[in-house]
Design goal:
The complex is a heterotrimer of chains A (256), B (260) and C (264). By secondary structure, chain A is α+β, with helices and mostly antiparallel strands. Chain A contains eight helices and ten strands. In chain A, helix 4 crosses helix 6 and helix 6 crosses helix 7. Helix content of chain B is 29%, strand content 28%. In chain B, strand 2 and strand 3 form a beta hairpin. With 264 residues, chain C is an alpha+beta fold. Helices cover 25% and strands 26% of the residues of chain C. The chains are: A alpha+beta (256), B alpha+beta (260), C alpha+beta (264). Chains B and C meet through helix 3, strand 10 and helix 4 of B and strand 4 and helix 1 of C.
Chain lengths: 256, 260, 264
């Protein structure tokens, strides 16, 4: 049960210089279903797999539009993400009210990073158990930021977090060179393909379990779900029917 | 001299009797500004096709006394905004410090996008409105001149009540009566701004400063003028009014030597 | 602050070598001479139809006899995204003290945005109208010095129009004029929108004369009425003029128009 003696709170280092509570929080991120984000010169895209706890329940929320110019995708504890997203919404509105300025993405990212860091240095606090991808467009163009429970944030060209996200990241790394010049449609397709990579064999992307968020230069952040993403799924995986058919044939051959 | 600063610079009690401190209030209600003390007069500004010209004289008056004759009432904010202050000078200096701290805060933050004129005007209007709502106003009328997004000229005003408005030409105080008609004759609407050159705008503002010096008793012939364009701010703080002449007065009944 | 200028010796420190300095007593409560309001003039009006609502306001802003600017909008889209208010379905018009008007607009806009964020659906006009009343009433001891008119479409798609006094008393109406020229425009609207003092010709004599029954006006007619109301108000009221801003709310969204008024 006890992994060691230094994981009861987030204010005590282990002799190896580690803070286990923070590391455990990062594990919570890996429990969440995968989310992917990519930026091009003109657009920022988020894509996510939604899980439903059971057949009868609704699907969880994975992408949250915060302000008209950006949104977040989450992996990990959804309730912690809600707290963070409320804070971000509040800060974004405040920026528009006091300065009549859409909050820069680097700014909002560093503000949640500061909050997260505080939780790793005060007794009785618990680190956030959620990782975020923050994507959108500000005065300096499209951006994608990654946020981790430790308070570490990084600006990314493409990123995937959550369960089995290593597969998605491998896809993103392989296609890295194509992102910068990619069109809006191409970028969405890359995100969906990356998402598909990290899916287990028996799972498919459907209009029910997939969310896509897009923002662009001169284009507000918009969340696409359900029938709105039908087209993207069809064009991205157009040979899917064929693959299934081929597999089916193979099976039949084996049978006979 | 003793080591008690409170006792310095006042009549010695042993010579003159106990100091009558009745005018010094140490308790009672918190007091707020009820009227301005040392004041600056008009600020005038006009938009032109690439930016904005703004000017204010260098005088700070104490009632009818021309108290300080070298007070700079135009203030740069980063490289694309100039703020012009009319009204109470101490409140101007407070706002100056406030803007300095805002600028430093912005420079230390992660964002590389500086606050533009519109952002700053919005911020100042919130400060002014908050203070009036607390019944503790900052007794100023402020013009914010500069550029907003895509380097569009921006000019707007905010006063001690938090009232805000924007116009191709603006003038505070006496200037609202004397300069604004002159400015509006040249730049009547937003569409005209596109056809006004920098030279025209500067000449227009200088003309206004002259008229104000002629007719505003609380004005000075030394003034500051700033031109804001995308290339930066050209601020001159020691300008002197040129080619003044009361020759025109000859033609005005009551000024010249003629009777009737 | 006051302690800096106090004549008292430092507390707990050595006293002056002179006799005790007297500490002043407060001279009593001084009356505030700062008045936190002003009137920025102008007028607004709203008319609701069968499937639309029109709000209109002139764009002049005044201080006494001065014109501050010829373009200061009094109509605001509520709950929309970005600087253009895209996607908004509600319009607020405010006339009176412009700084309070702007503050009120921003509060309501933020509330409607937060409502959408929290509930995942846009706020209804009726809910927004009641919320606006509460905002005004909560500040009744230091009121927002504005006459507000809120317009949109109700849940059945009919034109909805709500008018307010500065402390939150509100009512749903067919039409309302507010601001400097309200007393000039309102009687005109009573006659032309609600057909007051209009009788059916030949329906009788004296008390038998039948009142013409009001019915929702077509959009074209209302637009003409609004323009007539303002051109007339401009003639007789010095604080009204420069430009006419109109917002027409239909199920397609909000259509905004601007036309010139006399600048004298």
């Amino acid at each position: 049960m006890f992994r060691n003696n230094y994981d009861n709170d987030s204010v005590t280092f282990s002799p190896q210089g580690r803070i286990f509570q923070v590391e455990y929080a990062s594990e919570a991120v890996k429990q969440g279903s995968v989310v992917v984000g990519i930026v091009s010169k003109t657009h920022a895209v988020l894509a996510a797999i939604k899980r439903n706890a059971e057949e009868l329940s609704s699907y969880q929320k994975k992408i949250i539009p915060i302000d008209s110019h950006y949104g977040i995708a989450l992996a990990g504890l959804a309730s912690d993400a809600r707290v963070l997203s409320n804070f971000m919404k509040q800060q974004s509105l405040a920026s528009r009210l006091t300065y009549d300025r859409a909050i820069p993405l680097s700014e909002i990212t560093s503000r949640i990073a500061d909050r997260a860091q505080t939780n790793t240095q005060q007794y009785g606090k618990r680190p956030y158990g959620v990782g975020l991808l923050i994507a959108g467009v500000d005065a300096k163009g499209p951006h994608l930021f990654e946020f981790q429970p430790s308070g570490v944030t990084q600006e990314m060209v493409a990123c995937g977090i959550g369960a089995r996200s290593q597969m998605a990241r491998t896809y993103l790394e392989r296609n890295l060179d194509e992102f910068e010049g990619a069109s809006r449609e191409e970028l969405v397709k890359h995100a969906l393909r990356a998402l598909k990579e990290s899916l287990s064999q028996d799972k498919e992307l459907t209009i029910d379990n997939t969310s896509v968020g897009v923002a662009g230069v001169g284009e507000n952040f918009k969340l696409y779900e359900g029938s709105d993403i039908q087209n993207w799924l069809e064009t991205t995986f157009e040979n899917r029917e064929g693959d299934a058919a081929a597999e089916g044939e193979g099976m039949e051959v084996d049978d006979s | 001299m003793n080591h008690l600063p409170q006792a310095w610079g006042r009549p010695r009690d042993d010579v003159y009797g106990a100091y009558d401190a009745s005018h010094l209030q140490t308790s009672g209600p918190q007091q707020h500004t009820q009227s301005p003390i040392v004041t600056g007069t008009s600020v005038v500004a006009v938009k032109f096709k690439d930016g904005v010209v703004i000017a204010a004289d260098n005088l700070a008056s104490y009632g009818s006394l021309a108290r300080f004759t070298d007070v700079k009432r135009l203030r740069k904010f980063n490289s694309q905004v100039v703020v012009g202050f009319g009204g109470d000078v101490s409140d101007m200096q407070y706002l100056d410090r406030l803007l300095s701290s805002l600028d430093i805060r912005e420079n230390y933050s992660t964002t590389e996008t500086p606050l533009n004129a519109k952002n700053l005007h919005t911020y100042l209007s919130k400060v002014m409105y908050k203070r009036r709502s607390d019944f503790n106003p900052l007794w100023n009328h402020i013009l914010v001149a500069g550029l907003e997004h895509e380097n569009k000229p921006f000019l707007a005003s905010v006063d001690l009540l938090g009232t805000t408005f924007s116009s191709p030409t603006l003038a505070t105080g006496f200037g609202a009566h004397l300069a604004q008609p002159i400015l509006r004759r040249v730049v009547p609407d937003e569409a005209t701004v596109e056809s006004v050159s920098r030279e025209q705008a500067v000449a227009l503002v200088k003309e206004c400063m002259k008229v104000l010096f002629y007719r505003d008793a609380r004005s000075l012939d030394k003034y500051s003028i700033a031109v804001v364009t995308k290339d930066g701010i050209d601020l001159k703080e020691d300008e002197k009014l040129e080619s003044q002449s009361w020759a025109f007065a000859e033609g005005i009944r009551g000024y010249g030597t003629q009777v009737n | 602050m006051a302690s800096v200028f106090s004549g008292a010796p430092p507390q707990g420190g050595p006293g002056y070598s002179f006799s005790q300095t007297r500490i002043a007593t407060s001279s009593g409560i001084r009356e505030h001479s700062f008045y936190p309001y002003t009137d920025n003039g102008g007028s607004t009006l709203g008319v609701s139809g069968a499937d639309f609502t029109i709000l209109a306001g002139d764009t002049r802003s005044t201080s006494g006899y001065n014109i501050n600017t010829r373009y200061a909008p009094k109509l605001f889209k509520i709950g929309g995204e970005g600087p253009d208010g895209t996607g908004a379905r509600i319009v607020l018009s405010v006339v009176g003290f412009a700084a309070d008007g702007d503050a009120l607009k921003e509060r309501l806009d933020t509330i409607v945005k937060m409502y959408k964020y929290q509930h995942g659906k846009p706020m209804s006009v009726a809910a927004c109208a009641q919320r606006l009343s509460h905002i005004l009433y909560n500040k009744r001891f230091f009121p927002y010095y504005v006459h507000a008119i809120l317009g949109g479409l109700d849940e059945e798609g009919r034109g909805a129009l709500y008018s307010y006094d500065p402390v939150g008393s509100y009512e749903r109406e067919q039409c309302r004029a507010a601001g400097a020229a309200a007393s000039l425009i309102m009687p005109f609207l009573d006659n032309q929108v609600n057909f007051k003092n209009q009788y059916i010709p030949g329906s009788g004599v004296g008390h038998a004369l039948e009142q013409r029954v009001p019915e929702p006006l077509p959009r074209k007619d209302v637009e003409e009425l609004v323009k007539d109301a303002f051109t007339s108000a401009v003639e007789r009221h010095i604080e009204v003029g420069d430009g006419l801003q109109m917002m027409i709310i239909t199920k397609e969204g909000i259509q905004e128009t601007f036309s010139e008024l006399k600048k004298d």
